[in-house]
């Protein structure tokens, strides 16, 4: 450290430092010239309906199988008395409905119970909107009684609320009312009785949603957790969901738009994927469909990145070539991609633009990216991708195309697919890595040697997994933070990165770790969420070259387990340092490239540290491990700092 240049070099992290730091690590940050821009899309989110992320999660619907469209029409329901399922209802693509008739004796009852998703969570004093399409098929009038109850409750209050609804006429009509529970219950049951007069009543699309749902669609706390990330890119709807268990169950975006009542359900492929996490009642209502995804992108300020099927069924689950669409028959799939672009961006005078407008959004969604295929491999993938690239380029040269490097972070398929993506001229290549500690520790320099002239990188799915048992814990998140310094240092080639998966219901997960967990009433943000949030909040505009002994700080030998990167944001400088070692470390932050007499001034430090390596936040302790701002003062060109053991710190400075 040059003491003469050092005007005042005091970094006071009172209460934030661990004692006993090792000898100084001289980190040099060059302020002379701003480096590559950090794309606004750099840190984002990837939504997939896994772990009950849509129905039972972000989608605010509390009724399971609300339209009686599951293959077993009463799955999710308990029927009693005289209940029949009919299939000539008012919604062409969801034709089923329930007919409730007189049970034949004054003391008997006809009706239906719905348990929702692991129960129906309701809060005392909160308004809930109940709605149903109903009719009296013979004409005249009938009635139903709607209750929220907890038959299993040990509490005195068994009935949470009750409301009687008069139904009249042989025409289908939508009925709605608001109920306000008097007690909070995470596992209520929705019960519908046929009431006096016991005229036969038909019910279709039975819905219950909290009135605080964002735009009547998105569960409020979960939508807020996304908005608070300030994500720059929003990839949806999967993942393997795009591919389905087979082609018949791939995500068909066209089924996910238009009136919610008329969206046919789809089997959720995660129902079957892991026999030990089997949920036979896991379906996609498509209530959270492509319109809702585009709209959510807009609300949270991120660029939408829809992924479409490339005509290949999930290759993990389908060995036979017959499972896939032959390239010669791909045209309808290619057309789906073109129509999707029209749905997002087309004028209201176009077929799909008009559907978007009818749904409430005449203005285009300004789509800029489209992904084709997910984790595909072998020659099959480039062969299938090619017609999409040709058609999209011809019709929409403005749209950037995201291709895939397959399911592996390296190896035969990865090495085969990257050059293929280059040949096809993909704009970005999606890489996936769910990898263990040692991989994350060794990949700090992963992108340093990437071809700067080829496609850009989209790190589309990643998370650090412990070997064997996989779960959310601080140490894994710390290694993600360390790895992300390498994304940031290479922002010229890495343009997007999204952790995965995003959501998980504590009672319905198939895959761990995940970014945000919830039950029916509450949610919490994991340490990985905080890592993502900090990177998003301190994204900056341009990379600043940062080295130690002339080398990038990427956890290499002789670097004391340190990873580091720096960006500038106007006059602000954010230096991110991750100490993956068990020892506190002294740092010297040396700023070069300044004009004579210029200096930098410390503003604050933000620190995410813990010695509880294998713990995370939880529903019971949502703030067990969260970032803290620490006092940080000093001015000069060489600032001394310390970073605790197992610690991610962002040093914020200004010029
Ligand atoms: O995120 C879970 C799954 O992991 C995704 O669906 C898939 O793309 C990957 O294998």
Q: Can you offer a commentary on this structure?
A:
Strands 2-14-17-18-19-20-21-22 form an 8-stranded parallel β-barrel, surrounded by 6 helices. Strands 26, 28, 29, 31, 32, 33 and 35 form a 7-stranded antiparallel beta sheet that branches. It contains 11 helices and 35 strands. It is globular. It is 17% helix and 31% strand. The chain is an alpha/beta fold. It binds alpha-L-arabinofuranose.
* Structure class: alpha/beta
Shape: globular
Beta percentage is 25-35%
Query: Any low-confidence stretches, pLDDT <50, length ≥5?
Result: 1-22
- CA radius of gyration is 27 Å
Please count the beta strands (DSSP E, at least 2 residues each): 35
Helix share bin: 10-25%
Biggest sheet, in brief? 8 strands, parallel, barrel
Instruction: Measure the end-to-end span.
Output: 19 Å
Hetero compounds = alpha-L-arabinofuranose
Average pLDDT taken over every residue = 94
Number of helices: 11
Strand line-up of the largest beta sheet: 2-14-17-18-19-20-21-22
Keywords summarizing the entry:
disordered N terminus, globular, binds alpha-L-arabinofuranose, seven-stranded antiparallel sheet, 35 strands, 655 residues, eight-stranded parallel β-barrel, alpha/beta
């Amino acid at each position: 450290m040059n003491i003469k240049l050092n005007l005042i070099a005091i970094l006071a992290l009172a209460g934030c430092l661990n004692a006993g730091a090792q000898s100084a690590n001289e980190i040099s940050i060059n302020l002379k010239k701003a480096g590559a821009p950090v794309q606004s899309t750099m840190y984002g989110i990837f939504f997939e309906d896994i772990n009950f992320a849509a129905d039972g999660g972000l989608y605010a619907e509390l009724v399971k199988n609300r339209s009686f469209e599951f293959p077993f029409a009463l799955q999710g329901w308990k029927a009693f008395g005289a209940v029949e399922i009919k299939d000539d209802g008012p919604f062409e693509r969801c034709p089923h409905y329930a007919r409730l008739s007189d049970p034949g004796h004054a003391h008997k009852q006809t009706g239906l119970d719905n348990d929702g998703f692991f129960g129906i969570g309701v809060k005392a004093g909160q308004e809930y909107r109940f709605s149903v399409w109903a009719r009296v098929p013979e004409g005249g009038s009938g009635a139903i009684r709607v209750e929220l109850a907890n038959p299993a409750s040990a509490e005195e209050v068994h009935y949470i609320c009750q409301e009687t609804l008069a139904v009249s006429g042989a025409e289908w009509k939508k009925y709605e009312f608001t109920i306000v529970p008097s007690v909070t219950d995470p596992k209520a049951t929705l019960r519908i009785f046929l009431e006096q007069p016991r005229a036969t009543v038909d019910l279709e699309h039975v819905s219950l949603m909290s009135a605080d749902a964002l735009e009547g669609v998105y569960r409020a706390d979960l939508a807020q957790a996304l908005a608070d990330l300030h994500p720059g890119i929003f990839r949806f709807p999967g993942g393997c969901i795009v591919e389905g268990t087979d082609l018949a169950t791939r995500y068909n975006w066209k089924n996910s738009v238009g009136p919610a009542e008329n969206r046919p359900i789809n089997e959720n492929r995660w129902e079957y994927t892991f026999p030990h996490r089997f949920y036979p009642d896991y379906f996609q209502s498509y209530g959270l469909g492509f319109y809702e995804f585009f709209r959510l992108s807009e609300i949270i300020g991120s660029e939408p990145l829809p992924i479409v099927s490339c005509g290949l069924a999930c290759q993990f689950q389908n060995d036979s070539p017959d499972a896939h669409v032959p390239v010669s028959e791909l045209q309808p799939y290619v057309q789906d991609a073109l129509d999707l672009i029209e749905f997002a961006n087309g004028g209201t005078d176009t077929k799909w633009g008009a559907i978007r407008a009818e749904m409430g959004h005449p203005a285009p969604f300004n789509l800029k990216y489209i992904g084709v295929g997910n984790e595909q491999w072998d020659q099959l993938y480039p062969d299938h991708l090619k017609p999409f690239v040709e058609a999209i380029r011809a019709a929409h040269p403005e749209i950037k195309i995201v291709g895939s490097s397959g399911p592996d972070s390296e190896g035969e398929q990865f090495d085969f697919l990257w050059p293929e993506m280059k040949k096809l001229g993909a704009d970005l290549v999606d890489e996936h890595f769910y990898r263990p500690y040692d991989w994350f520790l060794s990949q700090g320099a992963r992108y340093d040697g990437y071809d700067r002239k080829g496609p850009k990188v989209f790190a589309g799915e990643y998370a650090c997994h412990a070997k064997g048992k996989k779960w959310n814990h601080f140490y894994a998140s710390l290694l993600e933070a360390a790895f992300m310094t390498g994304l940031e240092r290479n922002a010229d080639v890495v343009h997007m990165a999204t952790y995965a998966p995003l959501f998980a219901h504590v009672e319905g997960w198939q895959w761990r770790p995940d970014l945000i967990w919830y039950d029916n009433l509450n949610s919490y943000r994991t340490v990985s969420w905080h890592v993502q949030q900090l990177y998003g909040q301190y994204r900056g505009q341009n990379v600043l070259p940062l080295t130690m002994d002339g080398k990038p700080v990427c956890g290499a030998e002789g670097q004391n387990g340190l990873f580091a990167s720096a960006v500038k944001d106007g006059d602000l400088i954010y230096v991110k340092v991750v100490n993956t070692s068990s020892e506190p470390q002294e740092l010297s932050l040396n700023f070069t490239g300044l004009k004579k007499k210029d200096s930098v001034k410390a503003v604050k430090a933000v620190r995410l540290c813990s010695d509880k390596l294998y713990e995370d936040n939880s529903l019971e302790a949502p703030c067990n491990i969260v970032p803290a701002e620490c006092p940080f003062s000093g001015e000069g060109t060489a600032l001394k700092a310390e970073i605790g053991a197992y610690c991610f710190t962002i040093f914020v400075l200004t010029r």
